[in-house]
Design a protein that fits this description.
Helix content: 40-55%
Number of strands: 16
Largest sheet: 6 strands, antiparallel
Structural class: alpha/beta
Distance between the termini: 31 Å
Strand order of the largest sheet: 1-2-3-4-8-9
Radius of gyration: 24 Å
Length: about 575
């Protein structure tokens, strides 16, 4: 009654380590995805304790650790992983997922007790675990936050094992257990009191160790270099740890506003890397979208997924493993929304109410479509001082007001009790006494970061490339969580500790430039040559016939975008992707 299957991308001990792998006595069998970076140290300890190895593979280390320590083995693992171990003697299945959810793990638990699990949702569909159907209760979450933020997916019946959790299945019953949580600042035990210079020095030391550990591989290894400070910092540290030139890979679009190659080249030149680039045309971008929606299993949250897949295919011509900069923004307060929320909260509390009312009145005198009216409408002058207004709705794709207009009346009524920010509120409830910045970082790490990591994993693995994330080495992230807020967000300076650690190591132009994210000119494309995609996938008859959205609201959104009213590209991308996903 048990079946385990595995498709291997061989990274460590390429010739051996095939899976499913069984223990010598046949009691335990494992299927495993990921890398345990402290595997060499763990292997040495186990061999000293009398354990005999048949391979050099970290899969075997996980198997031996589980045999000796059971569920507690996860505490010793430093890396990214999703694995399942079947205990034949106890008739028990054990599933585990790494602390941040770098590696995916989805499951279906039937009413009759049957458990199905996989690295991709499409495997569960192919196996017949569920029939593909929209999980309508997740629609508000998807519309607001790019993607479902909690444990449920957009597929009815399909859940994900949360990061930092294990799952036991026995006799049809399932038990989930949280084995790790990120510390959150705000109390003496969680805030480091030392001098800033000492903390910066230790951050650099820990960051260097994280990069060193993640260079473990028996195959060629490279770096995704965007031109931002995160990937540039990893490149700078990598260059001190390897003797051969680092292979670096960058992607851009021909449009000037979506091209950061000059900054990537600046870093590549500084460290004399073996640099490679790909420029993606609009035609290539849109032709790839349906295939990549299929790869992601759910609608693509971010257009940058497409660029990531193109650069992954470029890298696959040269290497098997790449390091990437994901996780820095959520651990070190890299997003502008943190800065804006703290500023709005502070000003909203000191600005007299009569002046705020006066400003709100003046706002209505501005033209409805003016950029100033749109910007001021997102500040403390017009918004209530609570987090839902200042943070969640303010930076949502479709906030609550938008959803009230967008959803069809019957759907709006059906989902009236659904909180689109439920997963965020649950996270915030676990850290009620932390400073606001630490609360926001903690909540985003539990929710928003997951989608970024899934994008990173799915788009790279679709090209048979393994991507690693040094900023999410858990000892480094725990240290970052305990840093004083000023070393994350110092006035208007984001990621202060990283900028200070890299002073003199990176060009000043990299250290001082504003964050761009990864710009993709989707809005301009949909206003121009590719506008027909909106007529087909957003306001078209087939899309509207699903009955999810109010046709007038959808058409008004498309019309406003074509008229040049700003701020709708992200919304149209979400609706377009949702329709393509539903058709697939």
């Amino acid at each position: 009654g048990v079946g385990l299957g595995h498709r291997r991308l061989s990274i460590v001990d390429v010739a051996h380590g095939h899976q499913p792998m069984a223990s010598a006595d046949g009691r335990f069998t494992i299927v495993y995805n990921g890398e345990v970076y402290n595997h060499p140290a763990l292997k040495a300890e186990l061999e000293q304790a009398g354990v005999s190895y048949r391979t050099r593979c970290d899969t075997e280390t996980v198997l031996h650790l589980y045999r000796r320590h059971g569920a507690d083995c996860v505490h010793q693992l430093r890396g990214m992983f999703a694995f399942a171990i079947w205990d034949r003697a106890r008739q028990e299945l054990f599933l585990a997922r790494d602390r941040f959810g770098v590696k995916p793990l989805y499951y279906v638990h039937d009413a009759d007790g049957t458990l199905w699990f996989a690295s991709e949702i499409k495997a569960l569909l192919e196996a017949g675990a569920v029939r593909p159907a929209l999980n309508r209760a997740m629609l508000p979450d998807f519309l607001a936050n790019h993607a479902p933020s909690g444990d449920d997916t957009l597929f009815a019946g399909v859940r994900r094992l949360p990061p930092g959790h294990t799952l036991r299945w026995q006799a049809g019953a399932v038990t989930l257990t949280r084995y790790w949580d990120l510390p959150c600042g705000g109390s003496e035990e969680h805030t480091d009191p030392r001098r800033d210079d000492d903390l910066v020095a230790e951050y650099l030391e820990r960051f260097t160790q994280a990069v060193r550990l993640q260079l473990m591989a028996d195959v060629p290894l490279g770096m995704f270099l965007s031109g931002g400070i995160d990937s540039a910092a990893i490149t700078a540290v990598m260059s001190t740890l390897v003797s051969d030139p680092i292979k670096t890979f960058s992607v851009a679009f021909a449009e000037r506003e979506a091209n950061e190659l000059e900054y990537a080249r600046m870093v590549a030149e500084r460290y004399r890397t073996d640099h490679h680039e790909v420029v993606v045309t609009p035609e290539q971008f849109w032709n790839a979208v349906p295939r990549l929606v299929w790869h992601e299993d759910e609608p693509m949250a971010h257009p940058s997924s497409v660029a990531l897949n193109f650069v992954s295919h470029l890298a696959a011509e040269h290497v098997k493993v790449v390091l990437t900069g994901e996780g820095s923004d959520e651990t070190l307060a890299g997003y502008n929304r943190y800065r804006m929320t703290l500023l709005n909260r502070r000003l909203g509390r000191v600005f007299p109410a009569p002046l705020r009312a006066l400003a709100r009145g003046g706002l209505h005198l501005l033209p409805h479509a003016s950029e100033w009216r749109r910007r001021l409408g997102r500040t403390f002058l017009t918004l209530p001082p609570d987090l839902d207004a200042l943070y969640f709705d303010n930076f949502a794709v479709f906030g609550r007001g938008w959803q009230d207009r967008l959803l069809a009346p019957a759907v709006r009524e059906e989902l009236a009790a659904v909180d689109p920010y439920a997963a965020f509120h649950q996270a915030l409830a676990r850290v009620p006494h932390a400073p606001l910045l630490d609360q926001l970082l903690y909540a985003d790490i539990q929710t928003y970061l997951h989608e970024l990591l899934m994008k990173q994993d799915q788009m790279s693995m679709a090209a048979s490339i393994e991507s690693r994330v040094p900023f999410l080495d858990h000892p480094l992230a725990e240290f970052a969580a305990r840093l004083p807020a000023r070393l994350k967000l110092d006035g208007l300076t984001t990621k202060a500790v990283l900028r200070r650690a890299m002073k003199g190591r990176l060009p000043e132009a990299i250290l001082s430039r504003k964050k761009m994210g990864f710009p993709v000119p989707v809005g301009a494309w949909l206003r121009g040559e590719y506008g027909g995609l909106l007529d087909e996938f957003v306001s078209g008859e087939r899309a509207l016939a699903r009955g999810l959205f109010e046709p007038g609201a959808v058409r008004a959104l498309v019309t406003a975008h074509r008229a040049g009213e700003g701020g709708h590209a992200e919304r149209l991308w979400a609706l377009l992707n949702l329709e393509i996903w539903q058709r697939i």
